[in-house]
Design goal:
With about 90 residues, the protein is mainly α. The protein has helices at about 1-15, 25-45, 50-60, 75. Helix content is about 55%, strand content about 0%.
Length: about 90
């Protein structure tokens, strides 16, 4: 998930300030990009990634995009919710 934040940040920074850094030594250019990118990623984007991950993993599939699979009875009749059909 980190690459979801790092790659776009580095791409945007390269496009935005890359031409100003062309005259610099590659090591110094990398240092400048990392100095700008790391705080953006750590403080701006990383706190949002857990929410994005939960959203991606728990969103309901759109109708017609996935085949219907039958519900596993053991999961549907778990200890948390006992509908009348699951009672012995």
């Amino acid at each position: 998930m980190i690459w979801v934040a790092v790659f776009p940040t580095l791409t945007v920074l390269n496009l935005a300030i890359g031409d100003r850094l062309d005259s610099l030594n590659p090591v110094l250019r990398t240092f400048v990009l990392a100095t700008v990118a790391i705080p953006i990623v750590i403080y701006g984007l990383m706190p949002q990634l857990p929410r994005l991950r939960v959203h991606l993993l728990t969103r309901a599939p759109r109708s017609g995009h996935f085949r219907h699979t039958p519900i596993d009875q053991s999961r549907r009749c778990g200890p948390q919710a006992r509908p009348p059909s699951c009672r012995p």
